[in-house]
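Rotation project, supervised by the postdoc (A.L.). Task for the rotation student: set up a whole-complex structure prediction and record inputs and outputs verbatim in this book. Inputs entered:
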Amino acid sequence: MQVGIQNRRQLVESIALFKKDGHNHGRCIDSAMNTAVNLCSRRGARLTDLRRRVLELVWQSHQPVGAYELLDILKDERRNAQPPTVYRALDFLLELGLIHRIESLNAYVGCNSPDTSHPSQFLICRDCGAAAEISDTRLDRAISGLADDAGFSIVRRTVEVEGQCPNCQAG
Amino acid sequence: MQVGIQNRRQLVESIALFKKDGHNHGRCIDSAMNTAVNLCSRRGARLTDLRRRVLELVWQSHQPVGAYELLDILKDERRNAQPPTVYRALDFLLELGLIHRIESLNAYVGCNSPDTSHPSQFLICRDCGAAAEISDTRLDRAISGLADDAGFSIVRRTVEVEGQCPNCQAG
DNA sequence: TTTTGTTATGTTATATTATAACATTATATC
DNA sequence: GATATAATGTTATAATATAACATAACAAAA
Ligand SMILES: [Zn+2]
Ligand SMILES: [Zn+2]
Ligand SMILES: [Zn+2]
Ligand SMILES: [Zn+2]
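Outputs recorded:
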């Protein structure tokens, strides 16, 4: 089944972050920042210093990060950082799809592919805390299928699968 | 496909709550309370007055209810209600699976079938606020399938699909 | 049936997450 | 440069949740 193979390929790519040294995270960050610059430029959105910095901080790891964690760091960098400082930046980034909010953690994580609008779907490791964004046609079909059957029109979807990543199971 | 038909049947049942006069909610509550009594008895858990009352309040509707909403009601009934009063009761009910927590709303809703352990999966209407618990083999398979492919072992799953229910679309 | 251990609740305080409201500053457009 | 708009600064507070320790209720043992 062609779709199955493609899903698996995407999956392997998206879970690379679970492995120690499984990927070059410096590149991860660079790529995310470049994408953000381009996307903002295309959309006529202003990626200000503050917003850029918050995005950078969110991308420091693949572990979702809380607003007040970000605020603590910002406070060391700008004398005036307050909750609205970080929440406004997060709102901006959320609106553009540059980050996702993990509802079950009250935390924020960078988005893999902000160019195209898509649901928020994650595998989240209890041990290492990393969150891997997943895109899977089976899952998409299952959800749109059951919504159709129910006559329910979808506006937003949240899928958060919590467990143990392959790396943390090994240990 | 046999499974598809069964899914649809379950779905029709579980979304009945979206329809005005689509079901007898008094029975809903009675059934939930009976199930709770039985389940607690079987598990040797103490369904105290407080816990029973909180469960009753949660079941007053199919709209997920916030902890402080519950607290406001409790305060009218017992002089000493405080946040821990309601959070402890909620924790007890969550642990037994008698209620679910809706992460995207910070709110709580009664569980359809607390007898068997199952993931938290909901269709949530933006307009009327009702949350319909869904169980769907396609969805189950999609999620366990992709977790398997990723070598990820699932501990807990949250699926929250937000949108418009059939009844609210009509209006 | 007192004793004793355990579970549940009361009580006070505080932590964590998020927003409201209004003032000021920076940026873009005319 | 004047003006409108968007972004940030600033103060205060709302909303959600937990910590910590005291008392009360309950259940099993002695
Ligand atoms: Zn990375
Ligand atoms: Zn891990
Ligand atoms: Zn009902
Ligand atoms: Zn509705």
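Student's summary: Strands of chain A lie at 99-102, 107-110, 120-125, 131-133, 153-164.
Supervisor addendum: Chain A has one domain: 5-170.
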